[in-house]
Amino acid sequence: MKRILTTALGAIAVTAAAVWWFALRAPEPAMAQTAEPVADASGTSEQFGVTEMTMGAEDAPIEVIEYGSFTCPHCARFHNDVLPEIEENYIDTGEVKFTFREVYFDKYGMWASLIARCDGGTERFFGLADMFYSTQSEWVRAGSEGAIADELRKIGRIGGLDSDRIDACLADGDKLQSLLEWYQANAEAHDITATPSFVIDGEKYSNMPYDDFAEVLDAKLGE
């Protein structure tokens, strides 16, 4: 492996050591879909200097926040099969503002997040997120930590980032620390223990198929 990649991954490990305890928790199994009122987590992005990754009209009548991990198979199925329909039928029509917030249950999801956020733009982020999820079954089984990191870097390059930029993003300890603290604050505010989880206009829902999702959105649009 290139020396610069080794240095970058080492920086991640050292910076995260003090706060990695919550990122090592195994995600709990997804429960049946229910709606639960949750606390307001607005303002955490500004507090930690983290950019919210959103799609849709800022003034859309419904706000959907997804909490997902790049290593979560259920999240991959949601992004590959359900989100495209939500995007076509609700986001692109101006009815839903969709925000994706990463959950860091493991280091590999963090590495993917650092690469996806590398240029700070939402278009690049969602493009890379689509690539990470559509190829998840391949890169998560690449083998060693170094092999997985190489696969993630390869996806980043295919997505338009150059190698030096990817290395710099992986070595950005300050950004990693901010993302971890931002994740923890949001997870505590919304009581996130499993992925994917959704907060729809202030109510928390667990994973659900498109038909159930559409039923919830249609009901809220009719209120």
Enumerate the spans where pLDDT stays under 50 for 5 or more consecutive residues.
Answer: 1-35
Mean pLDDT: 84
Number of domains: 1
Helix content: 40-55%
CATH superfamily caption: Glutaredoxin
The shape is globular
Order of helices and strands: HEHEEHEHHHHHHEEH
Question: Between the first and last Cα atoms, what is the distance in angstroms?
Answer: 56 Å
SS content category? alpha+beta
CATH topology: Glutaredoxin
Largest sheet: 6 strands, mixed
Domain Thioredoxin-like fold: 51-219
Family: Belongs to the thioredoxin family. DsbA subfamily.
Protein name: Thioredoxin-like protein
Keywords: Disulfide bond, Oxidoreductase, Redox-active center, Signal
Précis, in short:
GO terms for molecular function: oxidoreductase activity. The chain is of the alpha+beta class.
Characterization of this structure:
Strand 5 and strand 6 (203-206) form a beta hairpin. The chain is globular. It has one domain: 3-Layer(aba) Sandwich (Glutaredoxin). Mean pLDDT is 84; it is low at 1-35. The protein has helices at 3-16, 44-48, 73-91, 107-116, 122-134, 136-139, 145-158, 163-170, 173-189, 210-221, and strands at residues 36-37, 53-55, 62-68, 96-102, 197-200, 203-206. It has 223 residues and is an alpha+beta fold.
